[in-house]
Amino acid sequence: MAKYLEQHRVLIAVDCIIFGFDGAELKLLVVQRALEPQVGNWSLMGGFVEKGEDPNHAASRVLYKLTGLKDVYMEQLSVFGRPNRDPVERTISIAYSALINIKEYETQLSDAYRAEWIPLKDVPPLIFDHDEMVAAAKLHLRYKAALHPVLFELLPEKFTIPQIMVLYEQVYNVELDKRNFMRKLRSTGLLVKQADKDKEGSRKGAFYYKLDQETYKDKFSSFLHFIPQP
Questions:
Q1: In 10 A of CB 213, how many CB atoms?
Q2: pTM for the whole thing?
Q3: How far is the C-alpha of 179 from the C-alpha of 182, rounded, in Å?
Q4: DSSP secondary structure string for all residues of 98-163
């Protein structure tokens, strides 16, 4: 079979942007780069697409190799292809993003490559154009969370309204009015109030809620916006 003889070699990479919530803080999963250039600096989970490999499979393989996480659903976010983005060789990267409940995956996390959850507000500068990737993923997350109740998937089976509020505040980097937020939240019909309370935060405590799964499925495509102008 004929080849494109006059075309130049371009490498294809994948990079994984994994956001997680532990019930108190929104975090980003990063690793310390194991090779030059910028060895030891903080990086997203990245690697090259192998010959004959599908990019989606490559993203899952790279994520598992560097962190131990598996069965994580990742959404293809965008392509980053600035000619000088990698100083070693011309490389185009396909970025993938995911949003997970940290506690559901904490037993899987491997320390082989020093993968670490860092609060989003404290993430240090990342290598290459990885900061741009994270910024794009944050914007995409904000857009999705304004249209659909996807952030509820980060919560434990039982949760409090303050937990939900903290999550939305950290995703959008805003300070929400508590009464207005609670009013909008309750109007969705998504929550089922429980009899017990979480008393760790105060003596009075906050009631636990559970997500009404049927209502969640019905309203997934017609979610009431919590945040204006996402």
A1: 10
A2: 0.89
A3: 5
A4: EEEEHHHHTTT--TTTT-EEEEGGGPPPPSTTHHHHHHHHHHHHHHHHHHS-GGGGGS-SSEEHHH
Residue bearing tokens 């989003």: 120
Residues ≥6 apart with Cβ < 8 Å to 15: 44, 45, 46, 80, 93, 94, 95, 96, 130, 133
Query: Measured between alpha carbons, how far is 212 from 154 in angstroms, rounded to an integer?
Result: 15
Q: Which of 174, 170, 187 is nearest to 223 (CA)?
A: 187
Kindly give the pairing relationship between strand 116-119 and strand 42-43.
unpaired
* Separation between Cα atoms, residue 116 and residue 207, nearest integer Å: 32
Q: What is the CA radius of gyration of the chain?
A: 20
Cβ-contact 70, 108 below 8 angstroms: yes
What single letter denotes the amino acid at residue 52?
A: G
Query: Do the beta carbons of residue 142 and residue 54 sit within 8 Å?
Result: no
Separation of alpha carbons 30 and 27, rounded Å: 10
- What is the DSSP-derived secondary structure letter of residue 198? E
55 alpha carbon, distance to own chain's centre: 19
Q: Are 37 and 48 in contact (CB under 8 A)?
A: no
Q: 119 is written with which tokens?
A: 């609060």
Q: Which two tokens stand for residue 3?
A: 């080849």
Q: Name the 3-class secondary structure at 218.
A: helix
Q: List, for residues 75-117, the tens digit of each pLDDT value.
A: 999 999 999 999 999 999 999 999 999 999 989 998 888 899 9
Asked if residues 41 and 157 have their Cβ atoms less than 8 Å apart, the reply is no
The whole-number pLDDT of residue 230 equals: 47
